[in-house]
Amino acid sequence: MRQNLKISLVIPCYNEEDGVREVIGRCPPEIDEIVVVDNNCTDRTAEVARSLGAVVVSEKTPGYGAAYKAGMKAATGDLIVTLDGDGTYPPESIPALIDKLIEKRWDFLSACRFPLADKAAMGLTNQFGNWVLTVTAMVLFFTPIKDSQSGMWVFKRSLLEKMRVTSDGMPFSQEIKLEAILRGYRFGEEHIAYGARIGEVKLQKWRDGWLNLSFLFQKRFGLL
Ligand SMILES: Nc1nc2c(ncn2[C@@H]2O[C@H](COP(=O)(O)OP(=O)(O)OP(=O)(O)O)[C@@H](O)[C@H]2O)c(=O)[nH]1
Ligand SMILES: [Mg+2]
Fold first, then answer.
1. 62 CB less than 6 Å from ligand 1?
2. To test the ligand 1 pocket, which listed residue (34, 35, 59, 64) has its Cβ within 8 A of the most ligand atoms?
3. Quick check: 12 and 56 in contact, CB under 8 A?
């Protein structure tokens, strides 16, 4: 509990047995429920997560968005917090982010990775890709945003009733933020320290970057 609210943490995982062990180990006591989504893992992600007290949801449809849809359906908290199962986002910052959401009366907080606390945590092509996607989102949707691709959010679970988030893949991340903004929810960003990844890279940067970019145009022009 934090601010008298029940807190659910949802972690999508595709083969993150080492990462998820570290992430759960770093979770502060304020988190009431940890939902780990096993997205066709072929390693011991599910066993590790269960042994550390997480609820494990199995999702067969591949993809980051499909994993999140299943995990959010299973979450029961008043607030949903998300991050990757790879140790890049700081679980230690969750209580402070919740306090910020309440203090600012926001409905949706997105943790902003830029400027990078650790320059080595993200390659230059990924930094450039993030910049292109964020600027495109700003221009197409006339909205200020600093990090459209961040995977760490804190939001009221009740928002899920109104938001229409469709993507099963990586575009889910920008889509959920744009949905929050376009539906008129109070949206804000707060800086966090982003670190280097544990385990193998899953993102296919050129393919996923292109899919994310074309998704923005499809959403803007009502083609979804
Ligand atoms: N890429 C990818 N990630 C998935 C999938 N299903 C679940 N995930 C998890 O979603 C989270 C985000 O994916 P990442 O591969 O870390 O993507 P990223 O953070 O943009 O890229 P890097 O951390 O730099 O590799 C991780 O915890 C993944 O394990 C999937 O089908 N594809
Ligand atoms: Mg990651």
1. yes
2. 64
3. no
